[in-house]
Specification:
781 residues, alpha/beta, 5-stranded parallel sheet, 29 helices, globular, binds flavin-adenine dinucleotide, binds iron/sulfur cluster
Length: 781
């Protein structure tokens, strides 16, 4: 039997984080909007962008060509011997790009290593074609029509030959780059092709993944199914749990084969829901989950279950349909970064980003060695060298009333001028400006009612209560005499005390109106209790936030209010997909619980010392011990020289430096997901929330787009393709999954008191908005 505290902890971990799905994300190339890569003349289209659908392949192929044209790459006639465009890959996407280029009259070459439209040509005979999203009309001249492999292929071939699109059989090995063109290297050829622009449309069909078991190279093992009728009456094992595997099972079972299916995972979540259901119906009892192949012989296959149980089955043929590696070698050799791959360049860029953030954060933090060094030496940009009068004069000049220099804005200048010696002021100013600029960019980029409102909320909260209130509004109120007497004085003394004679009021405490304990601890962990702040803080943390979370989920705070979230949703918008996923990383979700426990222990010591010393005086032995322990663990502790006290380790190092330092390489939500103690507390509240992300399972094509984009590491797809409402407490309601879903599967909402789903009124899915517009004849609602 387990030691009871450890069993309690594992049950708690399972209840809070362990029970949710933990699928991983495929390593695709890192791309910007419209397939942009780090080289402006090279763009990626089709399956490599992450959505494996014919309509998207066609649309993205056409889009990149138009994007190149709009950017003016083809204004001048290319020198002799140079192509205006080379397209690598003659699949749907490459063909759509070639057709678009032809229509624009460009000098283009289309290179294909196999037969034209090779991926489609390799589909099994009679394979049904699904044209998701059904009401999407791709912005491409290449029309996707036909409901079987054969009709689709015939239609595409006709459209391409009618417009004179020519395929050249060549395999591209890699790309190199010159200042004004790209060099396309062909396998087995000495002369490369020079091109002004290159479209990479090589799909995801790289090398087939291998089982790496004895017998895998026997002739009866294959990864291509051409004609299911060839297997009538045969004993066949299909290995894999994705669409291809399910389709192979269905067609062979219908053709009269005796099928077993071995799936490594716990279910068929990697496949479309209707395919999975049909498989379950067709081969009941022969669909084996958590099962791997141990060995293959001429007449048998030995399977092994996750509990170690081995058993042989009779067998004539094996299909290993466990996917293919994307063309990583080609991408690596062409110096195109692949998500989650860490080479020397990435390490160097990570270290540079991390150290820069650490430097800036230390520069702004009073008492750090960087801040001290700057204060002593007055190096640039030492704020202490700035003359406040210059600021006042600047405001007077630019905002003066009728040129008098004494307009209403002069006082604003005077107030801001008081902060010119404080690095923290510049840090907050920069923080606010970044959120404002990237917030506007996010609104324009995604343009859904949900994102517009959410981003406006984040920008306004950062600008008004978190920046203008402490630096301008409260000082102005003081200037106008609001805090001189009466209730104004009482409130100011309670909330913004003067720490010592002659010192300014502590207006910085006003951030406590937004930052709740234990995200912001300094209004609670004071030498003497600040009673009004304690009341406000207790109400926020233990009443208001839980009530809001009950209805709207944790995202009500993390996604709509908090400034850490504001930065992650704006500056971090382009970095979402960098959050690591999977069971290994999910274990770190519990780190926040440890920090939360630390914060609660300090709260206990702090409040305990106030009560005991208040009651028994300084002589109280327990009260003074609490006081000493509190001060030690909150501020002083440095075992072995490592500053493990809360103030330095959590508040300064983890929240300030690590949180922002990991931004550009691990997404903007590392602090929020793994470390923030308030998020850890809200995760507990969120377990009782009625908020859900509902899924229309029929529409889900298991493309994994939603999971890949989630910067909280949630495996959204696994909920969606089973039609289960997503209730992982980590969700911050950013709406990225809802926005990215190509078929409009996902919707925010909540369960009403009878457990029925109620969808939110603010629309977040562009696909649903489009569908609604179509239905309403052009109007949104
Ligand atoms: C089994 C299966 C079933 C599917 N069913 C459906 C469905 O029903 N509905 C749907 O919408 N989608 C379906 N899809 C997805 C659809 O096929 C893809 O989205 C689409 O084919 C992607 O087009 P693409 O041009 O990006 O890539 P591909 O069609 O894979 O084309 C890439 C081409 O690049 C070539 N190439 C690769 N490397 C090089 C190189 N180095 N040099 C030159 N050429 C190169 C390849 O030979 C290939 O022809 C299915 C996919 C599979 C595998
Ligand atoms: S589940 Fe969706 S809304 Fe929630 S955090 Fe992840 S991407 Fe954002
Ligand atoms: S919910 Fe949408 S994005 Fe997620 S897997 Fe399904 S289709 Fe793809």
């Amino acid at each position: 039997m387990k030691f009871w505290p450890s069993s309690l902890i594992s049950r708690y971990t399972e209840w809070l984080h362990g029970q949710w799905y933990g699928g991983t994300v495929e390593r695709l190339p890192e791309v910007g909007p419209l397939g942009a890569t780090r080289f402006s003349r090279v763009r990626i289209a089709g399956d490599l962008l992450g959505i494996p659908l014919l309509k998207f392949a066609s649309q993205t192929g056409a889009q990149v060509v138009n994007e190149f044209a709009e950017q003016g790459f083809f204004w001048t006639v290319p020198p002799p011997g140079m192509q205006e465009m080379v397209i690598i890959g003659g699949g749907v996407s490459g063909s759509a790009a070639a057709l678009e280029a032809k229509l624009l009259g460009l000098k283009v070459r289309l290179l294909e290593t196999g037969v034209p439209l090779a991926t489609l040509a390799n589909f099994q005979v009679g394979k049904p074609i699904f044209t998701f999203p059904t009401n999407m009309v791709p912005k491409s001249a290449l029309v996707i029509e036909g409901n079987t492999k054969e009709t689709l292929l015939a239609s595409l071939q006709k459209q391409l030959s009618d417009k004179g699109v020519v395929f050249e059989q060549k395999r591209v090995s890699h790309l190199t780059y010159a200042r004004d063109h790209v060099v396309v290297h062909i396998e087995g050829e000495k002369e490369p092709i020079l091109a002004k622009t290159v479209v990479i449309a090589v799909g995801r069909s790289g090398n087939f993944r291998r089982l790496n078991v004895p017998g895998e190279d026997l002739g009866k093992v294959t990864n291509r199914l051409h004609d299911p009728n060839d297997y009538k009456g045969k004993k066949v094992l299909v290995v894999g749990g994705g669409d291809s595997a399910c389709e192979a099972v269905i067609t062979m079972a219908k053709a009269g084969a005796d099928i077993w299916m071995a799936v490594r995972g716990r279910d068929l979540s990697r496949s479309k829901a209707d395919l999975a259901e049909e498989v379950e119906r067709l081969i009941p009892g022969k669909l084996l989950f958590e099962t791997r192949v141990k060995e293959i012989t001429e007449t048998e296959v030995t399977l092994i279950k996750s509990d170690g149980l081995e058993f042989p089955i009779e067998n004539d043929n094996v299909f290993t349909l466990i996917g293919r590696e994307p063309h990583r070698e080609f991408l690596r050799k062409s110096r195109l970064p692949i998500a989650f791959e860490w080479g020397l360049t990435r390490w160097l860029s990570f270290l540079t980003a991390f150290l820069t953030v650490a430097f800036i954060y230390m520069w702004k933090s009073e008492g750090s060695w960087v801040a001290n060094a700057f204060a002593q030496r007055e190096w640039f940009p030492a704020p202490s060298t700035i003359d406040p009068n210059d600021i006042i004069a600047w405001f007077g000049k630019w905002f003066s009333y009728k040129g008098s220099g004494y307009g209403p804005f002069r006082i604003v200048g005077e107030i801001f001028a008081k902060n010119v010696h404080s690095p923290g002021f510049y840090y907050e100013l920069l923080y606010t400006i970044i959120i404002l600029i990237f917030g506007i960019k996010r609104i324009f980029k995604h343009n859904t009612p949900y994102i517009t409102r959410q981003t406006l909320s984040l920008v306004l909260i950062q600008t008004i209560p978190l920046f203008l209130l402490p630096y301008l509004i409260l000082p102005l109120m003081e200037h106008w005499g609001w805090f001189k007497s009466g209730p104004g004085l009482w409130i100011a003394d309670q909330l913004f005390p003067i720490p010592e004679e002659g010192a300014p009021r502590e207006f910085w405490r006003s951030v406590g109106f937004i930052f709740a304990w234990p995200l912001f601890i300094w209004n609670a962990f004071t030498a003497a209790p600040l009673k009004l702040w304690l009341a406000i803080g207790a109400f926020q943390t233990f009443v208001l936030i839980p009530l809001l979370i009950r209805r709207y989920g944790k995202g009500v705070y993390c996604g709509w209010i908090c400034s850490c979230g504001a930065m992650a949703e704006t500056l971090g918008d382009a970095h979402r997909a960098k959050m690591p996923h999977g069971p290994f990383w999910n274990k770190f979700n519990m780190v926040g619980q440890v920090i939360l426990a630390f914060a609660f222990a300090l709260l206990f010591l702090r409040v305990g010392s106030w009560i005991l010393i208040g009651w028994q005086g300084e002589a109280s032995p327990i009260g003074s011990a609490f006081q000493r322990w509190f001060e030690y663990w909150a501020i002083e502790a440095k075992p072995f020289g490592i500053p493990l006290n809360y103030s330095t380790f959590v508040d300064f190092f983890l929240s300030g430096i690590v949180g922002v330092g990991l931004y550009f390489h691990f997404s903007g939500r590392t602090w929020c997901r793994f470390l923030c103690p308030l998020a850890a507390l809200m995760n507990i509240y969120a377990r009782f929330s009625r908020f859900r992300i509902f899924a229309d399972k029929k529409k889900c094509i298991s493309c994994n787009g939603c999971t890949s984009i989630c910067h909280q590491g949630i495996d959204v797809m696994n909920f969606a393709n089973k039609g289960q409402p997503m209730q992982d407490p980590q969700c911050v309601r950013c709406s990225a999954c809802v926005t990215v879903c190509p078929t409009g599967v996902l919707s925010f909402g909540y369960l009403d008191s009878s457990g029925n789903p109620v969808l939110d009124k603010i629309l977040a899915s562009p696909t649903q908005i489009r569908e609604l517009k179509l239905k309403n004849g052009g109007k949104k609602s």
